[in-house]
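Q: For a teaching session next week I want to show students how multiple molecules come together into a single three-dimensional assembly. I've collected the sequence lines for a complex. Could you give me the predicted C-alpha cells for the whole thing so I can convert them for display?
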Amino acid sequence: MANAKPRIKVPKTAAAGDVIKIKSLVSHIMESGQRKDKDGNVIPRMIINQFECTFNGEPVFSCDIDPAIAANPFIEFRARVQESGTFAFKWVDDDGTVIEAAKSIEVS
Amino acid sequence: MNLNRRQFITTAAGLAAAICGQQAFAKAEDVEAAIKAIAGDAEVGTGGGLKLNTPEIAENGNSVPVSVTVDSPMTEDSYVESVALFADGNPRPEVVSFNFTPASGEAFAATRMRLAKTQNIVAVAKMSDGSIVSETRNVKVTIGGCGG
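A: Of course. Below is the structure for the complete assembly, covering every listed component.
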C-alpha cells in the first residue's frame, strides 16, 4: 500500500550545464503478487509501476517498474541543469494512487 | 523515512517470500522474447559503452543493488532512450525499464531489485539511432527472495 512519504535528494545549487545526482526513496510494500496468505490465497499485486521526473515541466527521466523492484523503491538518476527551477516527481501505484513531490534548485 | 527500523525488518522478513510463488520461474525464452520486443528486427550487439553493475554475490535476495550506465553524449542527436533489465531466474523476467532523455545528462540509473535465486541479469540499451546493445551478468544469491 502507499503510506508513502517520498524522500528526495537534489543539490540546492548547481552551475549551468552541470549534471547533478538525484536520489529518491518512497515507502511502499511493493506487493509482488507472488505471495500467499496463511490460508493459501494469493495476496494480490500492488506495486508502484511508474516513476517520472520532470524539470520545469519538461521530461527528464522515468521508469516502468515491475514487481521485481524491491520494497521501498530506491531510484537514483542524473539530470543536466541549465537554469533554476523545480523538479517534479511522481510515483503511480497499480490502483491509480499518485504520490507527488517537488524540489527546487538554484542554477547560476 | 518514517518507516522505523523494526517495522522495516519485519516487513522485509515478511517479504522474504515476496518474489517466490506458486508458478514456475521464467525461462530463457521469456527473456529472449522480452529482448526481441525491445529490439524488433535490430541486431542486439555488445559494448556500445553499456556497463551493467551488479554484485557478484547478493547476501539478501530481497534487495540487490543494480545500476546501469551508458557512455553517451546525451544530446538531441545522440542519446540513450532506455535501458531495460531482465532477470532470467525470477517468476517473471521483467525488472525495470529506465527511460532517459537528453535532459538526463548522463545515462545512469540505479535501483534495488528482488532476486529469487542465483541467475543472470540482462541489461538491454536502446539508443536514439535505433541501435541496441546488451550485457549479461550472473548474480549469486545466498538467501533468495524466497527465504532460502
